[in-house]
Every structure is written in structure tokens, then in C-alpha cells.
Amino acid sequence: MLNLSGRWKAALLPVAALLVLSACGSRTGENEVTTGAVADTSGDTVKVGLLNSLSGTMAISEVTVRDAVRLAVEEINAAGGVLGKKIEPISEDGASDWPTFAEKAEKLIREDKVAAVFGCWTSASRKAVKPVFEENKALLFYPVQYEGLEQSPYIFYTGATTNQQIVPGLDYLKSQGKTSVYLVGSDYVFPRTANKIIKAYAAANGITVLGEDYAPLGSTEFGTIVNKVKASKASAVFNTLNGDSNVAFFKEYKSAGLTAAAMPVVSVSIAEEEVKSIGTQYLDGQLTAWNYYQTTPGAANEKFVKAYKAKYGQDKPTSDPMEAAYVSVYLWKAMVEKAGSFEVEKVKAAADGVTFEAPEGLVTVDGATQHIHKTARIGKVGSDGLITEVWNSGQPIKPDPYLKGYPWATGLA
Amino acid sequence: MTVIVSQLFTGVSIGAVLLLIALGLALTFGQMGVINMAHGEFIMAGAYTVYVLQDVVTGAGWSLLVALPLAFLVAGLMGVLLEVLLIRRLYARPLDTLLVTWGVSLILQQLARDIFGAPNVQTRAPEVLTGNVRITDDLVLSNNRLFILALAGLAVVALTVALRFTSLGRRIRAVVQNRDLAAVSGIPTGRVDRVTFFIGSGLAGVAGVALTLLGPIGPTMGTNVIIDAFLVVVAGGIGHLKGSVIVAFALGTLQSLVEYSTTVSVAKVAVFVAIVAFLQWRPQGLFTLRTRSLA
């Protein structure tokens, strides 16, 4: 739209040059020898890495995860540490930039010689650091629900895979007699993969998918999409939108006269923190699929919520990814103690069957997939902004990242 | 049929939103020729005014009504401050103005983050605006969009009247058409510039209030809409409010009709292609050189 004159181009040149330079900078470490890094456990302390975006667009979410890990570290240190050593956390900023994540992971492993790294949120950042951890034979604990279809030997996944979140969400809709769904999602890897799975499930379970729409990340105009949803007369909506788009979507949804009673929306990316920023006025009665809510009953959760609020503020809610991050530190501790060593291969070998009485209930590590057994919980957003459980799977579900145990899912992976 | 009508309504209301966010810019960029990248942050300031006000004035309906003039004032004063401190020193240097105001926009975003926190905040809309008018079962017109449509209409009428029939409007037009002649005729051009900038920025604040009814309220909400606002003013042509009005509604309708049968991304592409094609045909829609800073 603007006429680029000579002055314009002159102004843009340094910017372009900078971009090229920074792209080069992020490729350090490519030529290094690919032997396993050894954790330095010689002193009285053992170092662990915290790798989260502390700046940029993802900081809002990732800082809460970092805080949860810090809380777990403090608690463990107060109780005597791991194998007699205090944990020394080293925090690095991934800056919402995927190459930066890879760079910082390399730094934590090679320079700081940490025994394990806790962090990452988006699938893009996880995919960026995955080769770094595999080359260096180092451990990453990843705390966020994701799209499945992955199983790195050097990553432990403590968030839900699809059969612990999306599939139970669909089971719930089916049990409620919903016969058709409309799929709304942001346009990137997680919603597209999730919707592929949902369509396969629907085809096998007599549910009609009446439409499928993707909005670019950050999109805030949902007039047309909501019109389409309304015209489809679907009995429910499955929502994989992320970030700001949710706010615009739910405002539009309500003003179009659609209600949770007539056409409920099941969301997989809206936790307590997000409810606060969208507004309970717009979310009242809508459904979410997770493994943990602040309101989940049990002594372990009461203790976690109380400790978190005491440390970070009474108005701070706890959410699923935070809980999964908190749990991951305790699971690592249990694995190390079972192995009697900080060595990565020994810790991995000891992982199978390790359990922890987590805020979400008992979780067990599945050694074969390096995911954990988790209870699925469907929740309803209340007018107080908290989410209360309306259904759960009864017992922890065995993780199945490639959906091998589901006949309808053959051909998806 | 119902689908077409409801999509047309959606299109018109998207147009109204575009118009509201572009109207202030049509004044500061269209009339004065100042490329103000911080215009989006004035919109953000208007939205945060609603957020702050709802703690003071209880009752969502009243707080929204009070927020409209107050947001105009807040954003307007921010605009005047920007004009006095920076922009007036950079007249006739469009590239510098662009870079400086872009910097200001980043500073304002960070300021919002420091004051209100990085996550989005929520405002309570009055219950009546979250409802709708039911024409048939399939055709419902949502109240918030009707409200925005009315607000946009009101803003256009008020601005047109002010520009055409008041002595202030005459002065603004005189300065835009020939600054030197206006100056020797005794018009205090500096003051007129300031007032124009006040009104243009104030309108951004009003747009911000309207946006709280539709989308997220956060530090980056201004950057989400600023490009659209510039597109409308550029395609509408310089110095003609009429142009911006027509373009806003045309783009809104095009977007909603294309989007219904395809996807959001395709609709966005269609809008951009339409604008590029339009500017090939009528480049004077781009920069007519009646303004001083882009001459």
C-alpha cells in the first residue's frame, strides 16, 4: 500500500541485515560433537534448568508454569532435597522465540550441566528443543497438554496426550446425547491435528461434524464464524482456539443468542487463568476438558493451592499446566531416588511405575511412552470464575500418544 | 436468504468497526497527513478507560455511557501531548514521524503492561448489550453490533457537521487546503493542528470503548487494528471522510460474504487483493498531494 521510495528502502536495509544476523546467531552449537552431556553433581547441590518464555507473547502463560516449578523445588529443598543434595534451579528465558529455546537448552545442558530441564509450552518450542535433548542425551520434562503423535526418548510428557483430554471430551459429549459438533480452532498444528482426531472419532461414533473453521492466531473478528456455527444447528461446539481469539469468539457467541444450555462449547485451551481474562459473563456454564482444576478435591490439591497462593498472591488461580509442571519436579525426584543416581540413562530406566500423589490425584509414569497415567476431567465454568468438575474418567487413563488402542484412529499417525 | 441477510448485517457491522477505528485516523492522517502509528494505542487507552471506570462507576450501563466522553478526553489529551512534544517538530518529515510514533506506540504498550499487567483484562458489558434482537429464529441482530453501528453513524455525522458548518471546521479545512494562505489570513495554524489532533485521537478513544464489546482488552489490541485503519483511510482517499465511510462498509461486506463460503484467511486475501486492484485503478486513493507533510 505504501510506495517504497529510496529512503524507505534505505531505512529497511539495516533491519533486514539484523534479521539475517540473528538467524545465523541462533544456529550455534550445530557443529559440536554429539556426545551425551554429563550432569555435574559433584557439589552439595544439583542443578536443574527452568526453560520458559519470561518475555514475549507466551510469557503470560509460561511464567505461571515457572512459578509452579519453583514452588516444587522450594518444597523439596525444605524437605531435604534429592539424594541429600539441594536443588539449584537455573532459569533461562526462551523469549517466545523457538530458536532461542534451542539455544538456551544447549546452554543449560552444556555450560550449566543441569541434571534435568523443566519447561516449554508451545509445541513449536518443544519441537525446536527436541533434537538438542536427543543429541546431548539430556532430560526434558514437558508440562502442557499437546497434540500427541510424539515420543522422544529424552522427553517426559506430564501434560495430557490426546487420549487423556480430547477423546474423553468427546466421550462426554456422546454420553450427553450430542449427535453433531462444529469444530472451531486456531490455524496451527495443535488444532489441526486435534480436529483430525476428532473427525476420525466422530466418524466411528455416529457423530456428524457439521463444519470446521480455523481463524489465524490472534484473529478477533468472529461474526461470520459464529453465524456459520449458528446456522449449522450443531448440538455442540469443540473449541481449540488459543489466546485472544477466545475472548472475541465467546463475546460473539453470547451476543448471537447462543447459550451453554442449547449449544455447549467444549474448550481445551481455557483454564482458570484464561477464564479471568475472557470474562465469566461470557463463559458461564461452558465446558472445558482438562486433568486438573483448582477445585479438584483432595488433600494434595488443598496443600498445593494454599502453598501457591501464599507464595504468589491470593488472587492467583492454579491451573492444569501449572499443576503438571509442579508434578513433574516431584516425579523426577522420585525417579532419581528409585535409580539412586542422577544419570540420565539410569533415571530413564527407573521411570516405569513411579507414582506420585499429585493434586490431580494419583499419577503413574508409563515407562514405555514416557507419558503419565492421568484422570480426565470435564469441568463447567461457574459464575465465580472457577471451574467445577461435572464428570471424570473414574480412574487414570493409560497414555496412548499414537492412539494405537483405538481402532478408529488407525491411519492417523 | 436468511444467511445472506445475516451475513450482510455482519458485514455492515464489521464495516462500522472499521469505520470507528479509521475515523480518527481519517482526520489526523487523512486531513493533516501525519502518519501516527500510535493511533492504535489511543484506541487501547479508550478501552482501558472502560476498565478503570467500571471500578468507579458501578452499573455496567452507566459506566459505558460515561466512558464514551471520558475515553474521548483521555485519548484526545494523549494525542495533544504527542502532537506538542513530538509531531509538530517533525512536520514535513513523514519517515521520521512514522518511526517516532511507532516508538511511542511501543512505549505506550509497555506502559499498559506495567500498569494493568500483561494478561488481558475483562470488562462487564451492560446486560442489554449482550442480548440481541430476534427477527426470526435464524436471524438475530446482536445488540452490541447495533450499538456500534449507531455509534459509528453518530460519529460520522458529528464529524461532518463539525467540519462543514462550524468555524473551527472551516479553519481546519483552510489549513489543510493551503497552510500558508491560512496563516497569512490570521488563522493560528498551530492551534488548529492541535485541535484537529485532539479530535482525531479522541475518536480513537471512542473506538476503543466500542471494541471492549467485541474483543480482548489488552496491551496489544491497538496493533491488531492499526493496519486495517490505515487501509481504510488510504483506499478511501485523502481529505474525504466520504471515501473512508464507503471503503469501510465495502470492505466489511466483502470480508463477511467471502468468509462465509470460504475461510477467514481467504477472506483476508480477498480484501487485500481488492484494495491493491482498486489502488491500481485509482491511485489517487493513495496520497493526493494536497497535504503538506507528504508532498
Topology:
The complex is a heterodimer of chains A (413) and B (295).
Chain A: H1 6-25, E1 45-52, H2 59-78, E2 86-93, H3 98-110, E3 117-119, H4 123-136, E4 140-142, E5 155-157, H5 162-175, E6 180-186, H6 189-205, E7 208-215, H7 223-232, E8 236-240, H8 244-255, E9 265-267, H9 272-278, H10 280-283, E10 287-290, H11 299-312, H12 320-339, H13 344-350, E11 355-358, E12 361-366, E13 371-373, E14 377-381, E15 387-392
Parallel strand pairs in A: 1-2, 1-3, 3-4, 4-5, 6-7, 6-8, 8-9, 9-10
Antiparallel strand pairs in A: 10-14, 11-12, 12-13, 14-15
Helix pairs in contact in A: 2-12, 3-4, 5-6, 12-13
Chain B: H1 2-31, H2 39-56, H3 60-85, H4 94-116, E1 132-134, E2 140-142, H5 143-165, H6 167-177, H7 179-184, H8 189-211, H9 221-236, H10 241-261, H11 264-281
Helix pairs in contact in B: 1-5, 1-8, 1-9, 1-10, 2-3, 2-4, 2-8, 2-9, 3-8, 5-6, 6-8, 9-10, 10-11
Written description of the protein model:
- The complex is a heterodimer of chains A (413) and B (295).
- By secondary structure, chain A is an alpha/beta fold.
- Chain A has two domains: 45-160 and 300-373, Response regulator (Rossmann fold), CATH 3.40.50.2300; 163-295 and 377-409, Response regulator (Rossmann fold), CATH 3.40.50.2300.
- Chain A contains 13 helices and 15 strands.
- In chain A, the strands form three sheets. Chain A has a seven-stranded mixed sheet with strand order 7-6-8-9-10-14-15, with helices on both faces. In chain A, strands 2-1-3-4-5 form a five-stranded parallel sheet, with helices on both faces. A three-stranded antiparallel sheet of chain A has the order 11-12-13, covered by helices on one side.
- In chain A, a hairpin with a 5-residue loop joins strand 14 and strand 15.
- The radius of gyration of chain A is 22 Å and the shape is globular.
- In chain A, 52% of the residues are buried.
- Residues 1-34 of chain A have low confidence and may be disordered.
- Chain B has 295 residues and is mostly helical.
- Chain B contains eleven helices and two strands.
- In chain B, strand 1 (132-134) and strand 2 (140-142) form a beta hairpin.
- Chain B is globular.
- At the A-B interface, helix 1, strand 7, helix 7, helix 8 and helix 9 of A face helix 1, helix 5, helix 9, helix 10 and helix 11 of B.
